[in-house]
Please model this.
Amino acid sequence: MIKVDKLIFNAFQENTYLVYDETSECLIIDPGCQDAYEQQELVDFIDEKKLKPVGQLYTHCHIDHIPGNAFVFKKYGLRPVMHKLSLPFFMRANEQSRMFGLDEIEIIEPEKFIAEGDKIKFGNSFLEVLYTPGHIDGHVCFANKNSKFVIVGDVLFRDSIGRTDLPTGDFDILESSIKDKLYTLGADFTVYPGHGVKTTIGHEMKNNPFVRI
Model:
């Protein structure tokens, strides 16, 4: 059985997810831990649950989702894994840092790239990659159709959607990603967003004021 737990990090209140099954193998998704205190919080959670991290994955590479990349690499030996169109944003992350008046972060080059339809294995389980641009190029979501959940980064929020006024953002593309890739999963899917509380596909299909069907 897959479990999904959340830690909230940095000034943007970004959701970092730890996904694991009965083997205790664990994926760390969007490690946003910004400082030593938050880094220790991540380690303490992993130690308390006796987890074994086997992957460092990114839904996308805006600055609030990637501060922990170097720490996770140094602590657990895991290089970042992302869509290839995320790489330019990832490698220029400190331009984003300066724009928001944040401290610069260390960047560890990715191990490999993922694409639509890839399956990310951990323990006895896997997550399927869905390519979902519109908020930013290179954005992906991670779904498991047996456990009926999807980790959506900043594509979809409870009663809202990701902003489209940043570079490579496009509302029409985002709307298509939501309708074609997320709403087709099924109304009973749990949605774990990059910020805020979880929701369901069914709730958003009926109530989301931006993309309702």
